[in-house]
Design brief:
The complex is a heterodimer of chains A (113) and B (119).
Chain A lengths: L3 E4 L2 E4 L5 E7 L13 E6 L6 E5 L3 E2 L7 E6 L2 E6 L8 E7 L11 E5 L1
Parallel strand pairs in A: 2-10
Antiparallel strand pairs in A: 1-3, 3-8, 4-5, 4-9, 5-6, 7-8, 9-10
Chain B lengths: L2 E5 L2 E3 L5 E8 L8 E6 L5 E7 L5 E3 L7 E6 L4 E6 L8 E7 L10 E2 L3 E5 L2
Parallel strand pairs in B: 2-11
Antiparallel strand pairs in B: 1-3, 3-8, 4-5, 4-9, 5-6, 7-8, 9-10, 9-11
Classes of the chains: A mainly beta (113), B mainly beta (119).
């Protein structure tokens, strides 16, 4: 199975600053056939279901603010949130969907400093 | 507008069974990959099961042999039959759906239904 490891487990960032969350997969999630990374990022606010932010490692879901961006390839990925807003307080998860089981990372809790 | 509404959660004794439903609207359940994901209290997300557009099913090891995913095109509903329930199955259960841009992603989510396994 793919093991997804996020770092850090939690972080506190000042409003207007940049937040960076890392995700490492135990195996490559890059498909040779279509050159796509089967990696998504989700945001979960308290009491709400998760929300897809990024898919194919770097494609923003419709309606997601452009301060959210995803990067990386193969086994190492990053979610960057520029100009942090108060409404970005949440837990963020990466998930691989290259192969079943479609495993999630353990989550990263983002707070305001 | 795409909407997913879960139902069927509740309190069940260890060893018991429960069937969760996920009523879909705005698309047909046979046209997207559909998943079940759960979240134990205060814990992270755990992917449980998937049914793809061809009807192939996949499971996490933690539920394989105990849970069964299915769908009904006539009612446009996704199900998960949960047998031999254990205390560690206590969680909020979400159904999720892919989309045309990413079949395997969970683009749409329901609000979740709580399952509590306790005597």
């Amino acid at each position: 199975d793919f093991v997804m490891t996020q770092s850090p487990d939690s972080l506190a960032v000042s409003l207007g600053e940049r937040a960076t969350i890392n995700c490492k997969s135990s195996q490559s999630v890059l498909s040779r056939s279509n050159a796509k990374n089967y990696l998504g990022w989700y945001q979960q606010k308290a009491g709400q279901p998760p929300k897809l932010l990024i898919y194919w490692a770097s494609t923003r879901e419709s309606g997601v603010p452009d301060r959210f961006s995803g990067s990386g390839s193969g086994t190492d990925f990053t979610l960057t949130i520029n100009s942090l807003q108060a409404e970005d307080v949440a837990v963020y998860y990466c998930q691989q969907y290259y192969g079943t089981p479609y495993t999630f990372g353990q989550g990263t809790k983002l707070e305001i400093k | 507008e795409v909407q997913l509404v879960e139902s069927g959660g509740g309190l069940v004794q260890p060893g018991g069974s429960l069937r969760l439903s996920c009523a879909a609207s705005g698309f047909t359940v046979t046209s997207n990959y559909m998943s079940w994901v759960r979240q134990a209290p205060g814990k992270g997300l755990e992917w449980l099961s998937l049914i793809n557009t061809r009807g192939n099913t996949y499971y996490a090891d933690s539920v394989k042999g105990r849970f069964t995913i299915s769908r009904d095109s006539s009612t446009n509903t996704l199900y998960i039959q949960m047998n031999s329930l254990r205390a560690e199955d206590t969680a909020v259960y979400y159904c999720a759906s892919g989309s045309g841009d990413c079949y395997e992603c969970s683009s749409y989510w329901g609000q979740g239904t709580l399952v509590t396994v306790s005597s």
